[in-house]
Amino acid sequence: MKLLLLEDDDATRAHLEHALVVAGHQVDTCTDGDAAIKLGLSAQYAALVLDRMVPGIDGLGVLKQLRAAGVRAPAIFLTAIDGVHDRVEGLDAGADDYLVKPFASIELIARINALLRRQPANAVVTVLRVADLELDLITRKVRRAGQPIDLQPQEFKLLEYLMRHAGEIVTRSMLHEHVWSFHFDPQTNVIESNLSRLRAKIERGFGSDLIHTIRGVGYRFDEVA
After folding, report:
1. For residue range 141-167, what is the model confidence (pLDDT) as tens digits?
2. Structurally, how many domains does the chain consist of?
3. Whole-prediction pTM value?
4. Which residues, at least 6 apart from 220, have a Cβ–Cβ distance to it below 8 Å?
5. 214-223 pLDDT, tens digit each
6. Domain C-terminal end among 118, 137, 157
């Protein structure tokens, strides 16, 4: 399972990361709240492990922002604060569990595993996210960096397919068959024209490109060029 670990103490972070990797998890780590929010919005995590007291936005603020953005991954707070009010505050912010320092790494692993067991194996994904772009499959709304983007039906369908295959190479024939439902025709430019309009809407005025042309192969949807 892929986990996000927010912990600013170098020794603690290294120790927990090692323990979680040994337990079979993939771990992305960060040391401040801003980085945690960026990671939390750019990737899908099975669980969030958040230290309460970190530089910049604290763990509580991180979770509030991620929950407001629609991130529903279960979260556990790590903290030296042991007051009832603080625990209630964390749970009210959207946390699923609370672990007070000092603690044994095996207890953290056990609590994470318990949280993961609560998640239905066939949970339906209703929101797709890549970087700061969000596509809601229920409301049919698209936002980037919080700004609404108006798409035509075919543009929405094209974006949905690309986001479902984020990080993968998608060929023109795959797009023809799965987005337009007809077999590859090398004479048509329907893909290029739709991609051009889509790029203008989701990339122009934003900080980075998301649709990358892989010359002679196809396309890749990713925040990394």
Report:
1. 999 988 999 999 999 999 999 998 888
2. 2
3. 0.55
4. 167, 168, 169, 170, 211, 212, 214
5. 988 889 998 8
6. 118
